[in-house]
């Protein structure tokens, strides 16, 4: 009935995904199987400066990683949200925070009360963002961790910006302490078992053959095992998310580090700005149909705030996902599993989701198709729900100044997103779901930030009289403002809790 | 926007569903709308004694109802579990308790430890690690502790209630909140010739009730919505289509537990109240005739059978569109199901809660109907699957009824759940689920769906250490139960039935 336990796991590729997988598996399964990472120093890792979502804190906490130590060694800063500039209109700006907008009252979500005041013209267009503590704190450059009480200080979460080229080595040290063996070498051949097509072994340039029961493909876009050997197939989403290249370069910091990522829309894509302790990561994600590599690099350089610190690096990608991220005895993670542009900082989250699901469904030598089917079902949900959320940013725009924006504004979108957008447009209602990233408050932030203005709001708002609603919204803003102003400056917090700790 | 508001709501029916809807709407809408209940004499079913699920306590909190007072006036008792007998095999018995089972050790679901230790001789049942189950068997009860460190915080409870008295109790509540009530039989429902929406309910005496929004609480007759919308028939999976109910005098406050005993073509229930006990018999007419059913039922109830049995027919299924035009079906008008797992009042409750989350205006044009129907359909389908599981996951082969249930193909969503549980004890939960991971695991294991594998992470821990941990949990649970008062004493002390409501069955 139950097969014997897996004895050997080989992870192919030592980038962020590979070492996250190694650390995650070592933490949970080091007593049960041997874990080996095969990586080649010749093949660079894609990891640029990485912005994350709050889930990474649970990953690190599960591993038992000390936050201050981790932040110090990866030059990390705190992140309360993402500022989007020029997305719905040129000149627009809003922050998608990791947190709530006010609190429900009388069973009705807060944003409906705000929508009523907005309909009465008593509130400015962006007024609801003043009801979110992480937004107000981010704008003031302030940070303090949330508290577990029921106060306004409990209404947000946070994530990090860090140097991904340092996170992988950080996790490598963790994994190696727990018995993970690293093998340096370039893979020149993958051999499949004749009887069932399972991956049998890898051959390195040195001639060494490495066999294993389970292979985890973290080899990046090319999908060395999952695609080149196993032909799992790829679902192409570029008709919805047409950007297919990026050019990245770090630059010097010229201002104090702010606790948020910035995403600025350009003519043919958007540019990220990720503030680290010692520098700023920048990159322009663009659509090669609408801009040349040279022009993209020029745009990036023009939009750097400080001196450029390295030659721009180019990346190419195809947005989409592997049809079966788990096929036979191979599970693909990271870029080998699929690619979604880093607009909402989901790359590391998707690796984390794959690791969590693999551990929950960890196979034995019998490789039950039940485990494979369930893993693929769960991961498909994850990718599709992130995908819809990203498409929303592009599609909900009024911009008609360039071919890219004309294309995304007028393209047809997935039915699942069409349905969600219609309900928000009609009555400010956010469709909720259990599996997959992004809570309703994230959807609210991006709908309102992208100028998807509801025609109506929950009629139950009228149960309270307008004066009461006015008082409620005003007092929310006041509470948020006061809490934000009492938080320390982000730089000061970093200096006190992260950098000083290093000196000790 | 103000002139587009719903100003009036007419609720047709008069049973528990109607008064639950009237009470909650009146409370949340704070008198901003006119609400009338038309008591047409159509209760959800003739079932007099019923059991509930835990979320109803939350609804009482919103209403501000004093639970002790409510139980005293409805002859009520507490429910900590349901005991199932003869479902998976004749003689097989298990408890489906409320609350948590075991404890999450090292971020691994408790059942995996239990599954592993069973292989090396652990004899304790899964329910032995659940405080509700152990307390129910020891006939104990107390309300949960708010102190998270105490095992008493893992308690959860529901009720056994008298439907007529509970409806009356909510009626009093609603009428104090300015809900109007009218009595009469429905003669006609008039509709707008262009939109097809309901304009008015006309009673036999000629009175006419117009409203902006109509709630159909007329049970499976679905007198308002029935003509509009198709019915999705679930009888291929849930073949029971007849029920008989009977009350016996003399209550039972000892056992905070209902019972469900399978028989050759269905099952029967026992629901204990303070001053009487409700019995019911559910069967499939294709496999058992009415006379046999009645005599088997009366034989099982025994000599106490004093009252007159009532019987009714039903077809399991749900409306295709639960909200159609300006009419929303609630309770049995939305979905007709046998009272297995005590889901009927809960179905009414989720229907009302979703209406409040998607409250329309008079245009009914903002997507709320489509979303309401999508959410209700998916939650009802998940409830359906949970019920089907009880019939399908059986080893019984003693009658054609059980052979059919065991061999029938089940809906895909349920087939996937069963496969995942059988394969490695994984509980798959979809987007809209009434029942929790613990509920599904209790029924899977109770019905002898035993996973082939447990979570391999359990093997990270020394087996002796796991044994000790399980023993500790078990003794903590046992001590917790020991520390609780007897259910009968708890009832006597806090919520004894008021004299005017005790005694005879009206």
Outline the structure in words.
- The complex is a heterodimer of chains A (504) and B (506).
- Chain A has 504 residues and is of the alpha+beta class.
- Chain A is 37% helix and 20% strand.
- Chain A has a domain at 8-77 and 162-234 and 321-385: FAD/NAD(P)-binding domain, CATH 3.50.50.
- Chain A has helices at residues 16-29, 55-63, 67-73, 110-119, 133-139, 164-177, 224-229, 293-302, 347-360, 369-395, 403-410, 415-427, 440-449, 466-486, 490-503; strands at 8-12, 34-39, 49-51, 77-79, 81-85, 93-97, 159-163, 181-184, 187-192, 199-204, 209-211, 214-217, 234-236, 245-251, 261-266, 269-275, 280-286, 313-316, 320-322, 326-327, 330-332, 338-339.
- The termini of chain A are far apart.
- Chain B has a domain at 2-78 and 161-233 and 316-382: 3-Layer(bba) Sandwich (FAD/NAD(P)-binding domain).
- Helices cover 34% and strands 21% of the residues of chain B.
- Chain B has helices at 16-29, 55-63, 67-73, 110-119, 131-137, 163-176, 290-301, 344-357, 368-392, 400-407, 412-424, 437-446, 463-482, 487-494; strands spanning 8-14, 34-42, 49-51, 77-79, 81-85, 93-97, 158-162, 180-183, 186-191, 198-203, 208-210, 213-216, 231-233, 242-249, 257-263, 266-272, 276-283, 310-313, 317-319, 323-324, 327-329, 335-336.
- The longest helix of chain B has 25 residues, at 368-392.
- Chain A binds chain B through residues 1-2, 5, 28-29, 31-32, 62, 106-107, 119, 359-362, 364, 368, 370-371, 374, 422-423, 426-427, 429, 431, 433-435, 455-456, 458-460, 462-463, and chain B through 1-2, 5-6, 28-30, 32, 62, 107, 356, 358-361, 365-368, 371, 419-420, 423-424, 426, 428-431, 433, 452-453, 455-457, 459-460.
């Amino acid at each position: 009935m139950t097969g014997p336990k897996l004895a050997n796991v080989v992870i192919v590729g030592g980038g962020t995904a590979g070492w996250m997988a190694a650390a995650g598996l070592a933490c949970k399964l080091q007593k049960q199987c041997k874990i080996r990472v095969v990586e080649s120093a010749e093949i660079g890792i894609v990891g640029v400066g990485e912005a994350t979502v709050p889930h990474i804190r649970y990953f690190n906490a599960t591993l038992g990683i000390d936050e201050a130590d981790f932040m110090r060694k990866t030059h990390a800063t705190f992140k309360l949200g993402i500022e989007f500039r020029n997305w719905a209109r040129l000149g627009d700006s809003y922050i998608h925070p990791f947190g709530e907008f006010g609190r429900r009252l009388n069973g009705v979500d807060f944003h409906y009360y705000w929508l009523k005041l907005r309909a009465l013209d008593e509130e400015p267009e962006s007024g609801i963002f003043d009801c979110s503590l992480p937004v107000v704190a981010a704008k003031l450059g302030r940070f303090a961790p949330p508290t577990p009480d029921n106060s306004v200080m409990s209404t947000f979460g946070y994530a990090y910006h860090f140097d991904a080229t340092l996170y992988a080595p950080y996790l490598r040290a963790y994994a190696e302490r727990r018995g993970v063996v690293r093998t340096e070498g370039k893979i020149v051949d993958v051999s499949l078992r004749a009887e069932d097509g399972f991956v049998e072994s890898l051959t390195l340039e040195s001639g060494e053959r490495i066999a294993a029961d389970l292979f985890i493909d973290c080899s990046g876009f090319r999908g060395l095992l999952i695609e080149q050997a196993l032909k799992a197939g790829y679902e192409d989403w570029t008709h919805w998310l047409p950007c297919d290249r990026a050019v990245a370069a770090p630059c010097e910091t010229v201002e104090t580090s702010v606790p948020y990522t910035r995403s600025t829309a350009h003519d043919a894509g958007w540019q990220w700005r990720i503030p680290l302790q010692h520098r700023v990561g920048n990159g322009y994600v663009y659509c090669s149909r609408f801009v040349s590599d040279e022009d993209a690099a020029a745009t990036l350089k023009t939009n750097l705030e400080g001196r450029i610190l390295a030659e721009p690096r180019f990346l190419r990608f195809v947005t989409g996902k592997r049809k079966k991220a788990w096929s036979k005895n191979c599970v693909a993670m990271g870029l080998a599993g699929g690619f979604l542009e880093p607009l909402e900082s989901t790359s590391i989250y998707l690796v984390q989701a794959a690791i969590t699901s693999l551990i929950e469904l960890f196979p034995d030598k019998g490789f039950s198709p039940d485990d494979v089917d369930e893993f693929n079902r769960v991961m498909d949900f994850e990718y599709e729900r992130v995908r819809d959320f990203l498409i929303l940013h592009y599609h909900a725009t009024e911009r008609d100044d360039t071919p890219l924006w004309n294309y995304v504004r007028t393209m047809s979108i997935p039915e699942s997103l069409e349905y969600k957008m219609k309900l928000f447009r009609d009555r400010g209602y956010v469709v909720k779901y259990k599996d997959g990233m992004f809570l309703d408050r994230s959807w609210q932030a991006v709908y309102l930030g992208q100028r998807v203005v509801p025609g109506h709001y929950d009629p139950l708002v009228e149960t309270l009289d307008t004066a009461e609603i006015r008082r409620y919204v005003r007092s929310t803003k006041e509470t948020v403002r006061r809490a934000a102003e009492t938080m320390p400056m982000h730089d000061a917090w970093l200096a006190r809790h992260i950098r000083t700790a290093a000196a000790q | 926007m103000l002139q587009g508001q719903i100003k009036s709501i007419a609720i047709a029916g008069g049973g528990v569903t109607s008064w639950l809807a009237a009470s909650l709407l009146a409370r949340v809408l704070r008198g901003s709308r006119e609400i009338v209940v038309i008591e047409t004499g159509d209760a959800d079913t003739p079932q007099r004694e019923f059991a509930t699920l835990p979320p109803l306590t939350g609804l009482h909190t919103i209403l501000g109802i004093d639970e002790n007072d409510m139980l005293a006036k409805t002859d009520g008792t507490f429910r900590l579990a349901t005991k199932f007998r003869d479902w998976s095999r004749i003689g097989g018995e298990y408890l489906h308790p409320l609350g948590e089972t075991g404890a999450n050790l090292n971020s691994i679901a408790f059942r995996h430890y239990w599954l592993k230790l069973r292989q090396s001789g652990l004899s304790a049942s899964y329910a032995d690690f659940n405080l509700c189950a152990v307390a129910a068997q020891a006939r104990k009860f107390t309300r949960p502790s708010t102190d998270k460190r105490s095992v008493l915080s893992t308690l959860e409870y529901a009720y056994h209630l008298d439907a007529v008295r509970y409806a009356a109790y909510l009626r009093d509540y609603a009428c104090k909140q300015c809900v109007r009530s009218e009595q009469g039989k429905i003669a006609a429902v008039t509709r707008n010739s262009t939109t097809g929406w309901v304009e008015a309910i006309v009673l036999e005496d000629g009175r006419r009730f117009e409203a902006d929004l109509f709630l159909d609480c007329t049970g499976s007759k679905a007198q308002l919505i029935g003509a509009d919308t198709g019915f999705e028939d679930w009888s291929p999976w849930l073949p029971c289509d007849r029920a008989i109910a009977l009350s016996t005098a003399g209550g039972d406050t000892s056992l905070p537990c209902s019972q469900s005993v399978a028989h050759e073509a269905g099952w029967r229930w026992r629901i204990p109240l303070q001053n009487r006990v409700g019995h019911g018999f559910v069967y499939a007419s294709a496999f058992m005739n009415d006379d046999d059913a009645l005599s088997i039922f009366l034989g099982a109830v025994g000599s106490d059978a004093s009252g007159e049995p009532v019987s009714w027919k039903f077809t399991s299924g749900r409306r295709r569109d639960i909200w159609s035009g300006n009419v929303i079906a609630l309770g049995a008008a939305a979905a007709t199901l046998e009272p297995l797992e005590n889901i009927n009042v809960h179905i009414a409750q989720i229907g009302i809660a979703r209406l409040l989350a998607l409250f329309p205006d008079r245009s009914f044009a903002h997507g709320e109907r489509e979303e309401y129907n999508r959410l209700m359909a998916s939650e009802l389908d998940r409830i359906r699957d949970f019920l089907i599981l009880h019939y399908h996951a059986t080893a019984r082969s003693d009658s054609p009824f059980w052979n059919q249930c065991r061999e029938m193909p089940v809906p895909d969503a349920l087939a996937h759940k069963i496969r995942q549980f059988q394969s490695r004890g994984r509980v798959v939960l979809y987007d809209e689920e009434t029942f929790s991971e613990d509920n599904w695991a209790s029924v899977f294991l109770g019905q002898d769906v035993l996973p082939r594998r447990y979570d391999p992470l359990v093997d990270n821990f020394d087996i002796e250490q796991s044994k000790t941990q399980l023993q500790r949990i078990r003794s903590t649970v046992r001590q917790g139960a020991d520390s609780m008062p007897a259910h009968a004493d708890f009832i006597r002390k806090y919520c004894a039935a008021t004299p005017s409501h005790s005694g005879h069955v009206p």
